[in-house]
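Justification of computing resources. Each target in the renewal requires a structure prediction run like the one illustrated here; the chain below, 161 residues long, is used simply to show the kind of job we budget for.
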Amino acid sequence: MRRLIAQLARFGVVGAVGFVVDFSVFNLLRATVLSPDEVHSGPFWAKVVSTVLAIAVNWLGNRYWTFRHQRRSVAAREGVEFLVVSLGGMVISLGCLGVSHYLLGFTSAFADNVSGNVIGLALGTAFRFWLYKVWVYHPDRVQQESARAAVPEDARLPNGV
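Resulting structure tokens:
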């Protein structure tokens, strides 16, 4: 239990850094080049850009700190899986922003931040942590990969086992 709490704390710190990136970039873009006064779908695209940047920051933090003992040797595959899960979290956040801004008509910067950066982020964070834990950084996958790497290439079956 102590290990899980420590991991949750590290995940929270990484998430906080990602949040600062996401929040700052979103509001900067929304206030300037992607202002809803200039670009009708500006808040949506500002959220896409800010979230993609936060995903990159979060992947590095989670790979090298939060889940450092569970990361796999193939960073590209892990990165793709992390991206898939993170994009799922982004869809949740964008859905909250879209419902609030475009369906309910709450178009202020405050409303966009509450829907996208509070409600959407909270729901997306729970979704991401769960899938990172059970899929991307699952300990059994790390052990299986280590066991496969320990078997000499010429001793493996034709299907790679």
